[in-house]
Amino acid sequence: MHIRLRIKEILDEKGKSNYWLSQQLGMCYRNYNNIVTNKTSAVRFETLEKLCEILDVPVSELFEQIYDNEE
Fold first, then answer.
1. Which H or E element spans position 64?
2. Fewest CB atoms within 10 Å of the CB: 12, 25, 27, 47?
């Protein structure tokens, strides 16, 4: 099992773009892209709080558990 962020899915549901979110976060694109594509091993609490606020979702909606047999 591992945990992944659902940012792409949430953006799609809300009709928002990656560019829009990266601008809202004020984060360099490389770091932003690593988070959105789940290519990072850690995310700061501050970043999670900003994501929840900007996307207007509870923190629980940002995450998804993936079990090894689902991949």
1. strand 63-66
2. 12
Q: Are 67 and 2 in contact (CB under 8 A)?
A: no
Which two structure tokens, joined as six digits, stand for 11? 């953006």
Q: Nearest-CA neighbor of 37 among 55, 68, 15, 11?
A: 11
Q: What is the pLDDT of residues 13-54, one digit of tens each?
A: 999 999 999 999 998 889 999 999 999 989 999 999 999 999
Alpha helix ranges (H) inside 1-71: 7-14, 18-25, 29-36, 45-55, 59-62
Nearest to 30 by CA among 14, 18, 17, 48: 18
